[in-house]
Amino acid sequence: MKLFSFRSTLFLFAALLLSLSVIVIGCADGTPGGQSMAISSAQSESAPNKLAALSEASDEEVYTGEEATEESKSFNYADESEPIYENPFRSVSSSPLSTFSIDVDAASYSNVRGYLNRGEAPPPAAVRVEELVNYFSYDYPEPTGEHPFAFNTEVADCPWNPEHRLVRVALQGKDVAANQMPPSNLVFLIDVSGSMDSDDKLPLLKQSFHALIDRLRPEDRVAIVAYAGQAGMVLPSTSGADKGAIRKAIDVLESGGSTAGGAGISMAYKIAKKYYQEGGNNRVILATDGDFNVGVSDDGELVKLIESKRDEGIFLSVLGFGTGNYQDRKMEGIADNGNGNYYYIDNIREGKRVLVSELSSTLYTIAKDVKLQIIFNPAKVQAYRLVGYENRVLAAQDFDNDAKDAGELGAGHSVTAFYEVVPVGGEVGYEVDHSKAEDYQDAGKENIRFTREDLMAARLRYKQPNASASKLIEHRVADNHTPISLTSGEFKFATAVAEWGMLLRGSSYSGSASFSQVAQLARAGLGNDEDGYRFEFLTLVERSASLRGERITSDVKVNGGGARLR
What we know:
With 566 residues, this protein is an alpha+beta fold. 29% of the residues lie in helices and 25% in strands.
């Protein structure tokens, strides 16, 4: 990476800015037509302002970028048409422990919504049930003790397999007021390659970022790095008080050229480290359609870079935009490695939800490496299945291993997971996995002494954001299941979303699930719905049913309900 002193190049830059209407950061990368990454000069106004912003730190180094190399390689993610893997039913006698990392990503829901709003059925691989469920906010009790979490559990008859039980295990994170959040050191890494040149990509990205600016405080800092054929710094790290400079930097972004994201990622991390806020929120936010060559020589090197910066306290979050060449798997993987969140922005309302109304949970991590381990009582449960979380499942011994990475929870976020359990003596109805994966299963089981009322025990491990040692919380779940008609509205609605996800995925375990049943459960769980997201969900259920040639029945008795839901 080439670095030049600002003083020695000031007049050269001024001359270029006055003589050109477009600042070209980088050069032709060898692609047909000599494409390049372009940043508009916004006529006669923004170029001088950009120079003024840079001159505030007179000896600031100016990044001129790194050219992409032929050796750069993209992430090798499987095609989204590959067969869908689902968690199977497992035997409690051989595998009494179920362990997984939490997941608060919500990209799958807005991605699925985008497909349905375009009149298309989402590909099954794009449907991650846990992300659909966790897209929504739930009215769970706030934590009151020393830990930043509160458990919330509920047990009912399973609506799509009435002889089974459905167990909801939920966590509610502590909320943090915006004025109590620590300072943020943010570096926006923005893809301005040619593939971003459509209304649902770079223009929507710019709208979304403009919505964020008013929420920035003077103690917050923002830098902007853009990348295509090369990477370049559009805005040096700037106080949140200088909103005008930040807005102008966003306004000058234009798309054009091919992409080599690796150089941009390296540059963004370097800036984030230079302005590191001790005890603050240090984060690189990658905004892209995912159609980029990641660079850094190969996949393994990129993962090492992201993980090493994560361990230094700089997290990576991903905002996805656009359709057509959208690389969902790639971006989910990048965010997972970086201890960050992954969102898909399909419209400006979603952009404002992520970057304005839910800013605290998007940017401020209250706990990292959060793992859940469920231990089933063999006297009560003969088999179980975790609904969703297929790419978050951990080995049982990973639960006590503090070196094992897991998911993060933002301020005010909730996490919901469902288990479908088969009572002892009940009919499973599906093939059961009786394999014993690890000797640790027995050791973990011996640490729990069940009472006759216990259905299962839930154990949680987490670390404070800057800690290296985890803390343990335990919670018992009683076998007090009820008809689903008597459950809370939050249980009904979350169940509806999970059932919908199973239908969209073409789940082998969906039993008697139907779109009509989903709609009935969702209506019964609408609650206040001040923001209208739950009502919007009902419209998506109707659209997905229509695409399948099915009609929503307005009054249906939900299986296991015990009474009609109203």
